[in-house]
Amino acid sequence: MNQFMLSPVETIKANMKGQEARSRMPLFRLILLGIMAGAFIALGAAGSNVGMHNIANVGVARLVAGSIFPVGLMMIVFIGGELFTGDCMMITAFLEKKCRWYDVVRVLIIVWFANLVGSVLIAALVYGSGQLGFSSGLLGAFTIKVGLAKATISPVAGVTSGILCNIFVCGAVLLAGAAKSAAGKVFGIFFPIMVFVVSGYEHCVANMYYIPAAIFAAGNADYVAIATEQYGLSAEAIADGLTWKNFFLTSSPWVTLGNIIGGMVVMGVIYFIAYKKDLLVED
Q1: Residue 281 pLDDT class (50, 70, 90 cuts)
Q2: What angle do CA 87, 149, 47 make, to 5 degrees?
Q3: What are the φ/ψ torsions at residue 5 (nearest 5 degrees)?
């Protein structure tokens, strides 16, 4: 037995046991941990925006963001939280016949909305704190730019980018589970999440911060004026694009679907099939 990390089969099996336990988690705890996970991801997203907002080089800006954003998942792993994207791997517990299909659906729906509550609360707190006024309002304008692009994403881009994102997020969850030390878990989380952020893939829970924060920022005329001047965005495009309707109907469904496919099919079903004989052996 490796003293530093679990084998691939041991890692998948341990995750399956965790997913089985999740299917039986009390509702109140599921909601509370979902809210906290949404808040942690939102805090990582807010910090990454601060780090990158005034860097002209896109590659360098994303690298800076990618070095900050992973703190959200680290907090979830070390303190506790229920994150929709990681919970998509509950499909393995269903395939192992350790939970029912409607347990999977119930948990994912509850966690999605709990993540939303936590993320929007952080977006409101960040806006109220005055943080978006950094760099003479440029951070507020940058928040509008980022949120607008995510709120108006096309269905194809939303799904495909969502798939790619959750391959990395679920991979980070599995790597953290494989490591036996705190340092190993940190490294297991950091690099996959950094790559997903640098690549610009779409995470439905992170977008629960980015788009609401942009909606709040769009209510500030000064931020809108700076976004118009700095990024060539029209006030009309901002007003039409940054709406709760676009968040719930245009962006979130497609990104969420992509995240589900990436987590359930690519990181769940495929690895269950690959290791099926070993996974079904009782300890």
Answers
A1: low
A2: 60
A3: -155, 160
DSSP states of 1-47: --SSB--HHHHHHHHHHHHHHHTT--HHHHHHHHHHHHHHHHHHHHH
Q: What residues pair up with 122 in beta bridges, in sequence order?
A: none
CA distance 95 to 273: 10
Sign of the CA dihedral with 82 first, then 88, 89, and 92 last = positive
Tokens of 216: 């709040």
Report the C-alpha gap between 93 and 83 in whole angstroms.
Answer: 17
Q: Are 261 and 117 in contact (CB under 8 A)?
A: no
At 1 the pLDDT is: 62
Q: Which amino acid is at 164?
A: L
Judge whether residue 74 has pLDDT over 60.
yes
Whole-angstrom distance, CA of residue 8 vs CA of residue 23: 23
Region for 182 from its dihedrals, namely left if φ exceeds 0, alpha if ψ lies in -120 to 50, beta otherwise: alpha
- The first and second tokens of residue 100, run together, are 């029912």
Q: What is the mean pLDDT of residues 200-204?
A: 98
- Residue tagged 């979902």 (tokens): 34
- Domain covering 8-276 in this structure, CATH number: 1.20.1080.10
